[in-house]
Amino acid sequence: MKLPRQKRGISGSRKAHAPYNFVPLPERRSLVFGKSDLGAQPPEEVNKVLNRLPAHDRYSTQKLLTGFLTVGVKTLTPLYVRGMFPLSEFLVQEKGQELTNDYRLLLKNQPEFFHTHNPNEPIIPGSSLRGMVRTLVEIVSYGKITRVSERKLFFRTVDDTAVGIHYRDRMGGNVETGFIRQTEGRYFIKVCSMSRIKRSLLVPDPAELYDGRPPNRTPQWNRSKTWRQYMQVWVLLDGEGNITAINAEEPDDESYLPARLVITGDMNDKKQEFLFFEPDDDAEEVDVSDDIVDRFHDDDQITQWQQKAFDKDKPRKNWRKRDGMLRANLNNMGDPVFFLRENGQLTFFGRAGMFRLPYLTRPLDLVSTQLRNPLDVDIAEAMFGYVRTGDELKVMRDAAVYTPEQLQQGKKLRAYAGRVFVSDAVLDPDQELPHVEETITPRILATPKPTSFQHYIVQQDEDKDGLSHYDDQETVIRGHKLYWHRGRRALEQLRETDQKWLEDGEVKRNSTQHTRMNPVRANKSFTFRIYFENLSDVELGALLWALEPQGDTRKRYRHKLGMGKPLGMGSIELAPTLHITNRKQRYESLFKGDNWETGESAPPDKNALIQAFEKFILTTQNENKQRLAETDRIQVLLKMMEWQDADPGPSRDYMKLGAFKERPVLPDPRDV
User: Fold this and answer.
1) What is the tens place of the pLDDT at every residue in 31-81?
2) Element (H or E) spanning 427, and its range?
3) What are the residue boundaries of the structural domains of the chain, listed by start?
4) Residue 175 — φ and ψ, nearest 5°?
5) CA angle at residue 301 from 300 to 306, to 5 degrees?
């Protein structure tokens, strides 16, 4: 299978930069077993293949290895994993019941590092360490690509790129209007007609229609104002349907028609607002699925502007369950919305005429089915375990490779428990206090923006007009996202210093984009253990490779963990020591002289295990190489993990917002 590959040698004016980049998708997987091993074999032969996944009720006395790795962790830069808070506080946050807008006091911004007892004795949770290790095992073992969003991303752009043309083709002249309502649990849009009204007929100064300051001011809800969002009005039309008069009170003249005033975002040179006429009782009803309503309410759909514009207490207290949502009671009139139908089905709806539109294709669809076949089991799944989803089970049943009995609950094909277990990392003793830095407000840590398709999917053309987007079937996603190391980082390099966010030298208290943290200091050491049971030489070699990347011996390779990776936080050095235990010896005797019998025996040579793993991968990948580090894909991984003490400069920083306008392309990591 030949996949599209990212263009190399992107010209300077078209080259983007970011604190992250990608390890490309593998063109084939290296499997423990797969569909090709099973074919149409009888059940007894299938069971032999399944035995490549060892049983959990016994220890192997031949070939398979059991033991643990003691792993030292040294922080090279400040490290942060947020602590937990009680369920009661979590529910207060989820329900939007916090009584403050001060970001410093919000529950989600509690700064303590993860701990179990004393906040000054930080602990790195095993779940974070396990995720870090598993990701690297998946990459280096050429595993399946399954953890990709199954939800369609949204976009809105009218620029002159391919995606802008795609948006206009779908939206142009096709948007309708109506009121979304709910009756007896059923959502539907009551279709209505719409007209535009000149702002000059409403107010002499458009600012009177809004709260706040440009460019982020929001529609006015204040009932003391003459004109406000969603208010009922009465309008008079001329013979051509143009609005000639508008009243806030119902006039005696029956020529006036009832409507709702809809004020959308304030843009430069905007001249008009919208009026939605009240629909007739027999007007068309367009069904709206619960899934579409849920998607409308998702966190990635409700922008910060919408949270302010549709506050849960506007126009009345508890009007919505949370900021940005539709009104809680959609009986009666409902909320005015714009919507799009394609092929006779509702695609989506929004609060403005140019609302965000879902792509036709999911990110998951840009991963070949060969790279995510549930009939296959890769090394990472065999080591760390898996549970097949309902959709995956359907694929397995439809393939008719397995008998119904082999897919029953409790069978290996349906779910398999892992054989690798990761402990928390605890501080090593006798280190200088304090372990944790003072509370800081770092620069904004925004969520990933996969909608920047020029970064997140493979681009074979750097020209703006030739860029691929998510509905382009000739491309694939870029691969595993990793963050660059950025050298030693002082605390002052992490703090927010941009004056637009500051007031009296501190971040403005009403900020909705900042957080607080108490990171662990650089040069602190922790220790954790990775326990493993019944691993093959190849599997243990994969684990060792992930902990100690096998690249150029003249270079240093380090790992990333925790929050703040774009700022250069979370760079750590790992030092594993291998211990093998003989379980038969362990259980034959309680004591060994004056000590407990642990069964620990001399470990095999780590290099031999790593070589066994590399040989397996190179063979299954048909690579005529001596070492895994010689393959293109692993060269990219090693490049991303390279560590230097010095700051590499702006090539690993976010671009300024204005630089995204021309949609520059994120290059191959080897070209950074």
Assistant:
1) 998 877 766 677 777 778 888 999 999 998 778 999 999 999 999 999 999
2) strand 425-427
3) 12-30+69-122+432-671, 176-358
4) -80, 135
5) 115
